[in-house]
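To whoever picks this up:

The parser on our side crashed when reading a file containing two proteins. I've narrowed it down to the boundary between the first structure block and the second sequence. Both blocks are reproduced below exactly, byte for byte. First block:
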Amino acid sequence: EVQDTLGNTLHTINHLEPSVYPNTAMVQLNGITNEILLKTTKTDTIQNNGMVFGLDLENDSSGIVFSAVGVNGAEAFEYVAARYFAEETQVINPQLFIISLGTNEAQRRPFDKELTEARLDSLVKQLRTYNPTVPIILTTPPDSYFHYKYYNTAVAAIHSMYVEYAKAHNIAVWDLYSVTGGYKSCYMWKHYGLMRRDGVHFTRGGYEFQGNLFYEALIKSYNSYVAHRFP
């Protein structure tokens, strides 16, 4: 049951309602709402908990909806293992997928290039199964340290593998690894306070800088496409 802060019922979600997608329900609110309260009701006597996979909040305004999913330490195979992940991406009617993985895979020892590529391939195939016409951008991971102080050669290996995989599977690449300086560039990012002490995660400024770089690359490509598509 969905309630407003005054306790008024806005919608009752019935898990038995027919839906195009698994485990989904759509609620149309009557007006602009700042807060809602979700209340669960047992469907049988043995039920002890409920699960919410996620909430997608939208309005009627025009513009871009950016939906992000990320878990610290997660790798490609964990998104594949999530039972409904790829299937439920259909719900938001995606126009573009951006896959940014590889940093966590590069921390594994021994690094297995073939296994890493196979796991990436499984994720791409799942997404394309449910969203066959949606384009994908694959970003290469930036340079990073291994165990705080060693330059991580596995990142370079993942970078090469991602670029080759993208070419073979008709996927666009944003080469963050090269843009940020390539092998051993993590030293400079850390030196200028854009990377945290662990040599893997970035500071807020570092992430914002990378976000701006990606935006500039994406909008430049889009404007180039528009200029040629509609001269």
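<<boundary where parser fails>>
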Amino acid sequence: MQKNLVLLGDEALAQGALDAGLSGCYGYPGTPSTEVFEYAQAKAAEYGVHALWSANEKVAYEEALGMSFGGRRAMVTMKHVGLNVAADPFMNSALTGARGGFLLLVADDPGMHSSQNEQDSRVLAEFAKMPVLEPRNHQECYDMARYGLELSERLGIPVMIRMVTRLAHSRSSVTLGARLPQNALHQGPRDTQWT
């Protein structure tokens, strides 16, 4: 039986990641991305997810990347200017790769509703040669979270999901899919090259 919920775009994305077997969510508050983390944190006990606010976006990115290195699915959330703070691990992760699915949720703020500038995170993703998913509606927010984690594991690199303010903070009906189990923790090198 399918279940429908009325969710913010941010909440739909968080629910999609939770249902896709997310093990950890890390972030630093900044509108329009804050509600992604808050929703995941509110559901953390129910889903067995490690969810903590971090000291800044760089720390959050590194915490999520470390979980991914262990084979678990992880997500980090921030607004567009926070990606500047996380630039070092962001750029390096495009080279080091990921093991468990790794989602970078960046919420851009066209029109500067709650930000000091406008910035297009796709430019940094292109520079890093990182895939970017851009949902058009709330159902795609939900679906792309799952697809992004699967794509990350298939390609072995992080995947960015770019949200914008109007999608993040509006509500619509979302049809939920099946809930997947979390990945097992892997120890040791990813492949024989790393031994």
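After patching the parser it read the second block fine. The first strand starts at residue 3 and ends at 8. The chain has nine helices and eight strands.
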